[in-house]
Amino acid sequence: MVVAERGEEEAKEGRVAVEGWKVREQLEKEGLLRTPVERAVFEVQESYAASWPARDVVDAFELMLDAGKADLFLVMEPGELRDLWLKKQLRQMHRAAGKH
Known about the structure:
Layout lengths: L9 E3 L2 E3 L6 H6 L6 H13 L5 H10 L3 H9 L4 H18 L3
Helix pairs in contact: 2-4, 3-5
């Protein structure tokens, strides 16, 4: 699912800048963001794409393909606890894949 409507992604200092993101209301109007996985991927992008390295954001997208983890992520309040949980999940995913 591509959320960026126009513009190009630019990597600056390991961060991603995307111009022209569709807002939540536009995506819902188009019939997107119906499933927990779609909503979780959008929330990851909204919350972390501007401040995390692109590779970590992409890995978090992959993590959200697990519907149970997507559901849990969505019920957590944004903030430190959710951030810590997501980072822990990413570390576990990387260890299992032999990345770290």
